[in-house]
Structures are given as C-alpha cells and as structure tokens.
Write a structure and sequence with these properties.
11 strands; five-stranded antiparallel sheet
Length: 131
C-alpha cells in the first residue's frame, strides 16, 4: 500500500479486558479509539485484535473512521483464539477524526482479556496521516 510521506502517527493498545455480546458493532474499548486532527489527506490505518469466541461464537472486527465502517476481518469459529488483522487507507477532510476498532458477535460473546492474559489476547491500532 503506497502512502507517501508520514505527517504524524498515533498508536494505542488495549490495556483492559473487553467482552462483547452485541450483535451490532460496538467499540472494543476506549483504549483503542484514537482522535487525530489532520489536513485534507489520507489516513493509513493498521489494526489487530486477538480474541476468543465463547462456545460457538464467531465474530467480526472492523475499523471505523468517524462512525463509518471502512474495513473488517472475521473470527471464523467459536472456542478458538484468532487474530483479526485489518489494514486500510482512507481519504479524510481537514479536521478532527476518530478512528476505532469495533466488533460484534454472531453468537454468545467474544472476549479479549488483554489485561489478565496478555500472552494470548491483545488489540492495537496505528493511525498515520500521510501525503
């Protein structure tokens, strides 16, 4: 993915345990929400979440920019750990923008216990403003 020169970069990591039982997209945690003020350029975004589906729960994680879904990845089956990785490049107007990792489940719940079990669970996001 070409992207030009990096103007600024912000990153965040999940430092809390997170669980969702929502069938609609919900913010994983405020830890993985980034506010960035940019010029009229592009954002290059990389995000990942390592999570577990409880029982037979499958799920989806997605990158959202200003409340709009931009890309997603799927946790294919429950009872297993999976890492969902996403990469996107999004054009934005000049101003303040919010970039988040959101998720939803197709079953009981998804968990990402980044605080209590960091060897297996994690979520992170990197946002770069590029020319």
């Amino acid at each position: 993915m070409s992207g030009g020169r990096v103007i600024q970069s912000k990153s965040a990591n999940l430092t809390h345990d997170a669980t969702t039982s929502s069938g609609s997209y919900a913010l994983v945690h405020a830890d993985v929400s980034i506010s960035i003020t940019t010029g009229a350029r592009s954002l290059r975004i990389a995000a990942q979440i390592a999570c577990n589906g409880v029982g037979s729960s499958a799920g989806v994680a997605a990158i959202f920019v200003d409340g709009v879904q931009k890309s997603c990845g799927m946790h294919p089956n429950g009872g297993n750990y999976a890492t969902i990785s996403m990469l996107d490049k999004v054009s934005v107007s000049a101003g303040s923008h919010t970039v988040e990792i959101r998720w939803k489940t197709f079953g009981t719940s998804l968990t990402c216990n980044a605080a209590t079990n960091p060897d297996f669970y994690a979520a992170s996001i990197v946002v770069e403003e590029v020319t």
